[in-house]
Amino acid sequence: MDDSADITVSDCTTLDARPIEKQLCQPIVWRNVILYSLIHLGALYGVYLAFVSAKTATTVFAICLYQITSISVTAGSHRLWSNREPRAKWQLRLIIITLNTIAFQNSVYEWAHDHRLHHKYTDTNADPQNSNRGLFFSHVGWLLLRRKNPDVIEKSHTIDTSDLLADPFVAYQKKYFWFLITWACFIIPTLIPVYCWGETWSNSWYVAVLLRYALTLNGVRLIDSAAHAWEGKPYDRTIKPTGNLAVSEGWHNYYHVFPRDYKAAELGNYKFNFTTAFIDLFAKVGRMYDLNTAPTPELVLRRPWRPGQIKYRTDPAPQSWCWDDDKDFPRLECKEATIVNCRMWG
Question: Which PANTHER family match (predicted)?
């Protein structure tokens, strides 16, 4: 599908000009408000239990599960399935989507669809996590409202998700999502500490489940909240995404300018970019391939001098490097990409 063909000057102008108060009338989903409140209250109690009564093994288990499931979102839902950079062999895709189910950050299909919509209409009324509506809204508020406002519904149909449905693991998770997350995110992580090292049911539930889940939820959500609010904009000062240290996605201004760079950063090292370290590790052992990485330094230097998101909103041709498909970015710039660990066919 040619997503760019659906963007017109009038469409984008309407999206930007439409009064934001129309979105603020979205009904509150009180079920979600209650659930998220209980989760975070339980997580606070879990912090207390982690210090006064939980076994060290339970706390370590919760921290480790938080780390690896967060990677499954940043390396899986985000870079592998949303951005399609890099590619992974089926064995690793199975492991990642299993960990992703434990993380419970919506299904991979829904996460990737919303993320592509977020990139195509960044910080407009058609962006589900529109940061112009405030830090709280982009962090968690959008999950507490009826999410499909009229602009999001209208522009959702411009997003091609055929590649996601073609992945059998994504399709299976989507079909059986609620059954899978009930067991993977809540029941099994409760049972493991109880039966493996004799933890109490209460400590296991509040520390290994609620505290761990709240950490994962907030850590991942920082990508579209704090990363759009604070710090520098060296690559494009006209857009909201900034550069900070949010969950391996801290070079967010660079990433929104060059979203098909698998590192999601030009600079930095593994110390603050665990996701890239994860991808590079599995590329070295042959489980990941076709790592689309940095354009030439000359292209990176040229980019801040070009019109940025403002041009994107008033021009049918998006100005982000290598996004979506061959018709969505300048061919000259695509040729300047470097493919690392290219898969050899035949």
Answer: ACYL-COA DESATURASE, DESATURASE 1, ISOFORM A-RELATED
